[in-house]
Amino acid sequence: MKLILAIVQDKDSNLLSSQFIDANIQATKLSTTGGFLKAGNTTFIIGIADDRVDEVLKIIKETSQTRQQFMTPPVNLDATSDSSMAYPVEVQVGGATVFVLPIEAFHRF
Ligand code: 2BA
């Protein structure tokens, strides 16, 4: 059995939830925040049999889109020159960041 942690954009999370339900894949959804953009994203926790890992990855890959997003870096209030001005920079986010981990034990009490 494996534990899959999948961080996706909020915009993709509802469709991904539906796909998991249709495929009879059990998942838990967490509301999370990206450390860099400090914007909301969604993390799915999925416990799945080894032989279904590829199926889960395929669904995540097909559902999660790459998007361009703008972020404004924090302004440095101590600096005086124009170089301290904060201009929005374009960042590419997603499709999905996925971790696959081994599970030592699984219990349902
Ligand atoms: P954020 O940390 O908000 O990052 C959003 C996007 O900003 C990233 O997209 C990446 O394109 C860019 N980015 C992140 N850190 C950067 C930096 N130091 N310099 C320049 N650009 C940077 P993704 O790579 O698609 O990541 C989307 C979200 O997935 C991240 O949101 C974070 O919540 C999570 N994530 C990505 N890699 C991770 C990792 N190694 N460990 C844990 N969470 C991760």
UniProtKB/TrEMBL annotation:
UniProt-listed PANTHER family: CYCLIC DI-AMP RECEPTOR A (PTHR38456)
Protein name per Swiss-Prot or TrEMBL: Nitrogen regulatory protein P-II
Organism of provenance: Lacticaseibacillus paracasei NRIC 0644
Gene3D superfamilies (UniProt xref): 3.30.70.120
InterPro entries: CdAMP_rec, N-reg_PII-like_a/b, N-reg_PII/ATP_PRibTrfase_C
One Pfam assignment: CdAMP_rec
